[in-house]
Queue: 4 jobs
Job 1
Amino acid sequence: MAYLGRGLDKISNIEVLDNITFDGSSSYSITKGSVAFTPNSAQSCLISIDGVVQATNFSVNSSTIDFGVAIPSTSTCNFFLHYGTGVMTVPSDGSVTTAKLADSSVSLAKLTATGTKSSSTFLRGDNTFAEAGGGAFELISTTTVTTDVASVDFDTLSTDYKDFKIIASAVKNATHQKDPQIRVKRSGQSSFDSGASDYLWNTYGFRDANNVISNYNTSSNMIRLTGTNCASESGVSGASNNFEIDFYNVHGTNNKKFVRSFSAFTDGAYGRSAHAMGSGYRNNQEALIGVQFFFSSGNIDEGFFSLYGRKI
């Protein structure tokens, strides 16, 4: 037989709150079973003081009740009731469905996830927080050149990353027909290596008209990125030089530190479109801590240089 009578959402639900011990103050904490309790409103509360029932002559803010006047410590709280609405029941196991939960109602505090939640971590399927990464390159820092500098240096290659990449775009060399080059700094060193036989390198590419541009050196004081030189703004109006340079396993100590480069640039000899790819390495197995980009002579006028790192 169907239920007949008042709707279940209209049935009063009375909760007995902890009696207050007065101490001469005007405001007191509201608790139930010694745990902070937040009423629906002041109108939902009924309290008896020294046998006199109090209603609506006080205010409630979160789990604090304020009577507006000091209540003497000699006064007694006879009872403290809270009137809610609806039926209070404990749902059976597995009976609460997704549809019963309000959107955004489950906070991270309710999850049993392990690890540290932060702007740089994510929650994995096994309910643990983990660092983002795992193969993707992350932007570490950017240097924008707007006035002449001799070089762009990245002095810190964090051990948080295994491999690194530099992307340099719209680079303008101050002096016409100069070579883009890089050097590295080893762990424990204060300067970039520039010994006469510190590096080996090779490059291969083309410029328009199908001219091959290639070069190499088996005993050098730097790694060259192109097989021919780059044009400057003064030599070729609108000249632009762009590079992508990869550095592998820089913190390892059992391998030569290989570098790979891709270049799209304005050829300095003819002012033509050119591209090149190349590789080289620091002829040493020590870990690296820094990278330096520069031209064979003259300053860098302009350019955007970004350093990226890849975690494993």
Job 2
Amino acid sequence: MPQHLPSVEYLHKILRCEPDTGKLFWRERTPDMFSDVDPEHRQAKCEQWNAKYANRPALYMLRNKYFVGRIDGVVHYAHKVLFAMYYNRWPTGKVRHLNTDTTDNRRKNLHEIPRPEIEIRQDEDGQGWTIGFKPRYTTRRPVLYTGR
């Protein structure tokens, strides 16, 4: 199932990363970032959001030994988001932690392992990216009938 990936520019707009510690923090938001809210309530929603989340840790919930969190309602792994922010592109392969500590998301600890069966395409509107698996075709050897 394809997963929608936000653009790297959007990640830099909403998140602040510390490459030396591998931590993510929410940036303050502006009223125009709440387009799903009525225009007369955007300022109040923005102030409410900033009071609750701005400059606080982001994507820090531990799940299966990895930090995860939601961006616009979609769960993302922190190490993949950080890789995208560090290198200004989403990884096309698997992101590996060099010291095997999956909670250590410092820039020098993240390494990409290419995986050719993964396909990443830009969305039609140019706002984000879609990741999905290419179909894997295998050839089978025919079964020979021996007459038994």
Job 3
Amino acid sequence: MKTLIITILLLNSTLLSLSYPNKPKAPKIGTSGVRGYILCSIPKKYDHVSKFINKHWNAAKAVELDCGVPMAISLAVWGLETQYGKKPVKPNNMGSIKKNHVYVTYNSLSEFYTDFAKVFKQDCYKEMNPQTVKQWAISLQRVNCTYAMSKKYYSKIMWIVQEFNLDLIPLKSETK
């Protein structure tokens, strides 16, 4: 088994060497530092994932500020539903959002982001009051909200969050 060594130059100019298969864990630092660390820590074979995360980072941040869904959850859902941008269900629909049992086609990603945030402003999410990334992942497949019908949705989302270090993104409540 090959061991991949990642060397990161920290802000204080010291070097930290991390090796796989032990998953790298970085200290929780400011969002820009976390973003850079996440993108650098993703193995080269997942370059498309890095590009996807980088492209949608600011939109995920805006959605979190709008409706409280953690950036990690939005990025994981959008990545899962589109195979990291390779196969959206319909144009600009990165969350498999349906209306009247039909997948919605959006004119722009901005329109999708707004609709995605509306989904999570529903009363069922307010009632569950998820506070952590894990609680949000669980809430996605709850019967009373029905965002995801698959019984494995939670596991898939949490795998993405952990595999690509999205759990290092500070929650909105942690950055105040």
Job 4
Amino acid sequence: MSKSINSIMLIGKVKAHPQEKRTKFSAYLEVMVETVDKYIVDGQQKTDVELHEVRIYGNLAKIIGPQISANDTVLIEGQLKSYERQFHVKLNKFQLILKTNSGELLPPDYVR
């Protein structure tokens, strides 16, 4: 049984190219987002790195999927969900904050 836990906001990097997945009942786009939390404890810097599974359903997946790729920085707002003791984030809002360099240094209209 699926259960909504609470709202969540993540700012992080996309770790791999989004993948299309299916369940018995629906299809979704899976995006793995890495967040890094840095803080100081007893004068020493600590770093926590977490990997979050974000699921994007429906037409939103078709729109967002082609826009994002690995190492893009994104803002995700959604609901933290659990299903059979596994957690994922169901996307409510999405914003691309920083697009990685595609490797193309010339303007797109430049003819070689």
